[in-house]
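INFO  loader      accepted 1 record
INFO  loader      residues=256
INFO  predictor   begin
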Amino acid sequence: MTQPEQFLPVIENETATSRIILVCEHASNLIPPAYNDLGLTLAQRQAHIAWDPGALALSRRLAQRLDATLIHAPVSRLVYDCNRAPDMPGAMPARSEVYDIPGNATISASERLARTEAVYLPWAAGLHALIAKRIALGRHPVLITIHSFTPIFHGKPRHLEFGVIHDADPHLAVAILDAAHKLTRLHADLNAPYSAADNVTHTLRLQATPYGLPNAMLEIRNDLIAAPASVNAMADQLAPVLNMGLVEIQRQAKAS
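INFO  predictor   done
INFO  writer      dumping tokens
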């Protein structure tokens, strides 16, 4: 297969005043023509296996309310999952949830390299550049990744509505969760529906931890952000939550 062009990350509101950088790794379900739909049906390409429905719309609303910068990936996570390292099986999965991914079943080492060069390396470099530039300006950023999850997983309903996940540093995640309990009625929990043990915190580990940046991963149940009105309502709830969480970790830093 001919190697496609590089797929650059999309950056919005780059001159924002907030310390927060919002990251949406699973923003798009686009599978470029060179990949022949990965052998999937239209319904499968629109399902959660290909992206996080509602995550980009919510990220954009939060970026507006918080005056935050947003960076999001331009292609489906089935082509390359930007929240996975190149050696992780989930970077180009042969199976996702209950679905086989025919176009990923027998990819060669050279094809894995081609996808890594086309999608992952531009993504990682673009996000790192955002972070490094702000550090150079003395504006140490806060990294928050935005994801959505399905109401039913392997046949079991999920009652959780809002999950906050951390990697090595729990401080911001705990502060956000405490704020969610104080300001909303969302069924919220820490390290749910996934945790770092599920290999979902690659972006945080690679981009935030080495610089000691506050960071957290947010998971919102996707039926709660399925329509524009519900996206707006969720953004109205979560923007004050994120602000309160940021204020709390700033308070902790001054007190230490």
